[in-house]
Amino acid sequence: MTYTEKTHAAFAGAPIDAGDPRVLAWLIRRHGLEMTHISRGSHIGAIFSLAEIMATLYTGVMNVNPAEPRMPSRDRLILSKGHAGAAVYAALAERGFFDVEELSTHYANGSRLSGHVSHKGVPGVEFSTGSLGHGLAVAAGMALGGRKDGADWRVYCILGDGECDEGSVWEAALQAHQYQLDNLIAVVDHNRMQSLDFCENTIALEPFTDKWAAFGWNVMQVDGHDVAALQDAFAKAKANRGTGKPTVIIAETTKGKGVSFMENDILWHYRTPQGEEYEAALKELEAHRP
Q1: Is residue 22 scored above 90 in pLDDT?
Q2: For 192, which DSSP code?
Q3: Which of 46, 177, 212, 249 is 20 to 30 A distant from 219 in Cα terms?
Q4: When comparing pLDDT for 198 and 22, which is higher?
Q5: Which domains does the chain have, with CATH numbers?
Q6: How far apart are CA 59 and CA 24, in angstroms?
Q7: DSSP letter at 110?
Q8: Contact predicate 240/181, CB 8 Å
Q9: What is the pTM of this model?
Q10: Cα–Cα distance for residue pair 106/122, rounded to 1 Å
Q11: Burial of residue 31, with CB atoms counted within 10 A of its CB: 0-12 exposed, 13-18 middle, 19 or more buried
Q12: Rounded to an integer, what distance in angstroms lies between the CA atom of residue 179 and that of residue 176?
């Protein structure tokens, strides 16, 4: 059985509509489980928490074209929390940017699909990330360049909430407001956990929405696992163009979402699914296939 046959087995030969964000979110989790299992890689909790965010962006929100990944008019996506790169790779493969079978090489020596997301040779990836706190600054720079060129495209940036401990995030937020980057849309995967503990036990972020508002941003807060709510938020963010204010969507999520024993368990930031845990996670995912 090939990698693709294995990861698509739950569909039992039925057509797979990766253009449906709920289906794509499930596929992102299924691939995330398999990719980290094969590679013995980490960060499955983060991959699972942003599945609906990523799926919604790649099914009708962003203007992208797998047949022309570098088209000048494309929207740009920066995954600032680069450790969840498997979610980007899975979305890109299922949307036709490259062969799904290549996902089996994730994190392997010589693979272009590195553990932290890389743009080197990977169609659809704009920028390599992994050192937290850099992505929003890069996204703001891209947005400023686009505005100076009079371009219509937008820049999307996905951050982690723990990442917002970094001062560079807030420096970039100030710059985005200063230059009125209303073509910039940030999304915070607010799963309330980071690395080794809950955010509140590390550096408390609350009042989180008030902080962004005080920095001059248009702020929305939504259920990050509700596709309809995400679609509505992105539509409102697009309509914000012309106001001179960048937008941030605080997406309330659950780390490890989709597998009950992984949810809100800090072990699954670094733990890799093997043995009985892998089998149990697979069984649970396949029982809830859309």
Answers
A1: yes
A2: S
A3: 46
A4: 22
A5: 3-287 (3.40.50.970)
A6: 8
A7: T
A8: no
A9: 0.97
A10: 12
A11: buried
A12: 5
